[in-house]
Amino acid sequence: MGLLSSLCTSQSLTSRPSSPAIFCTSGSVSFTGSSLKTQAFLRKKQTLRFVKASVAVEQQTQEAKLALIRIGTRGSPLALAQAHETRDKLMASNAELAEDGAIQIVIIKTTGDKILSQPLADIGGKGLFTKEIDEALINGDIDIAVHSMKDVPTYIPEMTILPCNLPREDVRDAFISMSAASLADLPAGSIIGTASLRRKSQILHRYPSLSVEENFRGNVQTRLRKLNEGVVKATLLALAGLKRLNMTENVTSILPINDMLPAVAQGAIGIACRNNDDKKWCVMLCANYLALLNHEETRLAVACERAFLETLDGSCRTPIAGYARIDENGDCIFKGLVASPDGTRVLKTSRKGPYAFDDMIAMGKDAGKELLSQAGPGFFDR
């Protein structure tokens, strides 16, 4: 019996709370041992009786199966692409996880997905895309949570840890327009759609004659549809998301990092799990499987950028950008930016130092303190 089967067999029924949900599975999986069959039967009964309002399914099957790992995710095409990437990497890392039905994907509708008529800042900020998923993780409805790291608040909920980042995608922003080759080619008064204050402030700083539609929200497909319908003249989207969706044919041009510094953790996927399970199930899961998936270069870069963001106490109401990378000599190069929402003032800083966790955390914090001092009171109120 493999390690993961041993972990599952030793897990008590109480370690997976009875908070009910519906699960999707791509097939069946066989188990040995009466305890696992009992767990599957009890979970099936719970599943059939109750359905959480915030939890949907990617695919229903006639019979609820017991999965070894349940992945929680939002239901947008991009979120599902990231969950599938995580699933595929887990399957490749262990033969037992490659068995049919060993991994289930559980779709969780977040508040941020439900409320699209208001700017994020008006309904609570970035945590709205992670809160319900984190709750499902803590309650035991899922075993791991897959997040876009730029959506993750700088605090991690108690009873959870985020030990794993997948290899980072391209961090740059893509310019998309039906009528212009670049931002510089747009005529004065043109409206650009973006819900990001970071993008808005940097656009207006370089091109003050342009206008920005702030409540340009929805998934990638929705925003491209609005652009095609003429709601706006152009939009900016993360190139990473377009690559993961195989939709790069929509890109008009790619903005250089010096022209549009990316969001903190843009292009990075994070995987969270519990750290307080009975029988140490989740701790062992993280140690034995998520550790195999972790891309340390990405994890350190994201930690540096998030230290910068945390120092600035950033939220969806504050235009902040930050990017850490490794240079040809193996050192960390960090660039940070804060801006007034109207783009009239942009403050920048940079750091260079060893590509090591403690040094990079210190760099991020120090850069944040410098910009806080330069900005002064009321800077973000403009």
Automatic annotation (TrEMBL):
Keyword Lipid metabolism: no
PROSITE patterns to which the protein is assigned, alphabetical: PORPHOBILINOGEN_DEAM
This enzyme's EC code(s): 2.5.1.61
GO CC annotation terms, alphabetical: chloroplast
Species assigned in the record: Salix koriyanagi
Domain Porphobilinogen deaminase C-terminal: 300-372
Occurrences of domain Porphobilinogen deaminase N-terminal (ranges): 69-279
Coiled coil: none
GO MF annotation, one: hydroxymethylbilane synthase activity
Keyword Chloroplast: yes
NCBIfam families, per the entry: hemC (TIGR00212)
Cellular localisation: Plastid, Chloroplast
Any one of the GO BP annotations: heme biosynthetic process
Stated name of the protein: Porphobilinogen deaminase, chloroplastic
Xref: Pfam families: Porphobil_deam (PF01379), Porphobil_deamC (PF03900)
Cofactor needs: dipyrromethane
Keyword field: Chlorophyll biosynthesis, Chloroplast, Plastid, Porphyrin biosynthesis, Transferase
Family: Belongs to the HMBS family.
Pathway it works in: Porphyrin-containing compound metabolism; chlorophyll biosynthesis; Porphyrin-containing compound metabolism; protoporphyrin-IX biosynthesis; coproporphyrinogen-III from 5-aminolevulinate: step 2/4
